[in-house]
Task: inverse folding
């Protein structure tokens, strides 16, 4: 299966939805920072992988699919749920990549520069995520 | 403190938005879904945390992040299963199952991180 970029899908998202994503993202980041400030790094670190905007993301996928199908005069509630489910499956694979990201940071940040560590960790997230996604598609 | 939080809000909002746009554009959807679990909060906060608290603090946070990410994987799998099996509404399902993330993260904290 080929990876492709579909720029037309950006038109489905309204400006207000971009705005709320920004607000959600900022708010979740602030909450994660406050948790670390109040309860320390052990509890705070858990919230670096908090799925704060995940419900909103899959809800948007469901909404866009429903709108697309209603324009085509289909009743899309069931297939919209299926599309949101596929998105959630992708997120579960991305979360495995997130484990790799965190592991690379944990083992390397005390002895290496943060910029290099974050680049390697991000690369680990992409590679592990892609590998698990590829393996799942093959199965 | 307020300035620090405002900066985190701004950076976090921008990074989350950028990854969300990428996730929207990338097809097939299952691959785009990976971006719903991108390390956005970590990328937004770790540099500021390192500057303020030091490398050891960041390493402790990253170790806990492993547990949070395991909880995320279990949570997202459960959401995916529930949506496919019961065809429920995405927002309601993902919000209700958020308890699973908290429960798993708390469990991993109790058996691994608290020691």
Result:
């Amino acid at each position: 299966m080929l990876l492709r970029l579909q720029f037309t899908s950006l038109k489905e998202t309204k400006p207000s939805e971009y705005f709320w994503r920004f607000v959600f993202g900022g708010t979740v980041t602030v909450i994660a920072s406050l948790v670390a400030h109040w309860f320390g790094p052990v509890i705070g670190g858990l919230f670096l992988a908090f799925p704060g905007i995940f419900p909103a993301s899959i809800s948007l996928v469901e909404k866009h699919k429903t709108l697309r199908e209603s324009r085509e005069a289909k009743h899309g509630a069931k297939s919209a749920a299926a599309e949101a489910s596929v998105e959630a499956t992708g997120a579960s694979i991305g979360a495995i990549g997130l484990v790799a990201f965190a592991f690379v940071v944990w083992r390397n940040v005390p002895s290496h520069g943060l910029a290099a560590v974050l680049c390697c960790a991000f690369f680990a997230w992409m590679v592990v995520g892609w590998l698990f996604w590829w393996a799942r598609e093959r199965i | 403190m307020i300035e620090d939080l405002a900066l985190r809000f701004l950076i976090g909002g921008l990074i989350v938005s950028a990854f969300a746009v990428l996730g929207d554009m990338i097809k097939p959807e299952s691959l785009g879904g990976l971006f719903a679990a991108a390390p956005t909060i970590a990328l937004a906060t770790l540099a500021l945390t390192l500057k303020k608290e030091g490398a050891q603090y960041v390493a402790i946070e990253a170790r806990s992040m492993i547990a949070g990410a395991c909880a995320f994987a279990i949570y997202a799998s459960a959401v995916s299963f529930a949506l496919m099996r019961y065809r429920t509404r995405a927002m309601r399902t993902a919000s209700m199952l958020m308890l699973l993330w908290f429960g798993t993260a708390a469990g991993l904290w109790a058996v691994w991180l608290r020691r």
